[in-house]
Structures are given as structure tokens and as C-alpha cells.
Design goal:
Elements (H helix, E strand, L loop, with lengths): L6 H11 L4 H8 L3 H9 L19 H9 L9 H10 L11 H4 L2 H11 L5 H8 L3 H8 L14 H4 L4 H12 L13
Helix pairs in contact: 1-2, 2-3, 7-9
Length: 187
């Protein structure tokens, strides 16, 4: 079961307008019961305006009445809302901000790719790490201004990408790789 689109705002509305238990609201909104209790006590979600789940077609009045009558039952998201949540869960890949402290690690990650995974294209490295083609070319040509201090380091350990993103890129690169090339797995 999926959560409503704005869980805290929905929880605020359900607390103010229904007699549902904290556990029922917590289960529906995918929150901890103590967090729901904190909302009811005015300690959590201060200033959040309640969002009516009936008005935005996430719950029906009948569903709320059914669960108010029996505290052991669970609220279920309407079919229309479940479809809407499924459609909108695809996240767009957007450029992410890299803190200044981690920017100095990008050449190390580029060098790691060039040394251990030459099958990864420059464009894939640019997208994954957020570097530039000129930096990649400078490291390839060993003309980077800081080349003496650059050492190959895993971009996941540097915090520049997630392991899932790296695995996806490496799967694509395996098609282009020569098995005789030295990789971390066969060293």
C-alpha cells in the first residue's frame, strides 16, 4: 500500500477531523505512531496546514467511517490515488549539488574510471560524477594541473554517486570492456 501524497498534512487533517486512532493514521500515512501523537499534541508539524484526503481523492468518507467504527481496521488508499502515486514515483534525473569539499575528489574518481573501467564512456562519467569533458581529457592526457596528486579512488566511497548508479553504468560498460584490462575484481 502506498502513502498519501503529503503524509504529514494528511495526518494533521485526519487528527483534526476524524476519530481515527493514532495507529490507524500512522499506518495510513507511513509514519510512526509517536510522531502522530506529537502532531496531535502540537509538538510536531507545527504550522503545517491539514490536507483533506477526501477532497484530493485519496480517501472516501465511507472508508473513514468504516475505520472509525472499528479501530482494528486499516485505511486503504483509493484506487485513483494509487494509480496517481505509481505514475508520479518516477524521479527525474537532475543535476545534483556537489559540496566544495567533494569537488576536489572528482579528478580521483575520473582517474579511477579511466584506469579500471576504460569501457565507460566520457559522457557516462560526466553524468555520473558531474565533471566536465575537459577535466576527463586533461586526466587522460596527464595534463591536469594537479596530476601528481591524483590517485584512483572509488566514486562511491568518495560520496559522488550511489552504488546503484555505479553498478548501472558498469553494466553498460561491460559490453565495451576488454577482459584483459586490469579491474579491481581481477587484481
Amino acid at each position: 500500500m502506498n502513502a498519501p501524497l503529503m503524509p504529514k498534512a494528511t495526518a494533521v487533517w485526519l487528527i483534526e477531523n476524524t476519530t481515527l486512532t493514532f495507529e490507524q493514521i500512522a499506518e495510513f500515512c507511513k509514519m510512526h505512531p509517536l510522531e502522530v501523537k506529537g502532531i496531535a499534541d502540537g509538538e510536531v508539524a507545527i504550522g503545517i496546514i491539514g490536507e483533506n484526503p477526501i477532497a484530493n481523492d485519496q480517501l472516501s468518507k465511507e472508508e473513514i467511517k468504516r475505520c472509525e467504527a472499528n479501530p482494528k481496521t486499516k485505511l486503504t488508499l483509493s484506487e485513483h490515488a494509487q494509480e496517481h502515486v505509481r505514475i508520479n514515483t518516477k524521479k527525474r534525473k537532475t543535476a545534483h549539488y556537489t559540496p566544495i569539499a567533494k569537488r576536489q575528489d572528482k579528478p580521483d574518481a575520473v582517474y579511477w574510471f579511466l584506469r579500471f573501467y576504460p569501457g565507460v564512456t566520457d559522457q557516462q562519467i560526466v553524468k555520473l560524477i558531474g565533471t566536465t569533458k575537459s577535466t576527463i581529457n586533461a586526466i587522460k592526457g596527464r595534463t591536469h594541473w594537479n596530476m601528481t596528486n591524483i590517485k584512483p579512488r572509488d566514486p562511491v566511497l568518495l560520496g559522488l554517486c550511489s552504488q546503484t548508479e555505479l553498478d548501472h553504468v558498469l553494466e553498460k560498460a561491460k559490453l565495451n570492456m576488454d577482459p584483459a584490462i586490469e579491474t579491481p575484481e581481477n587484481i
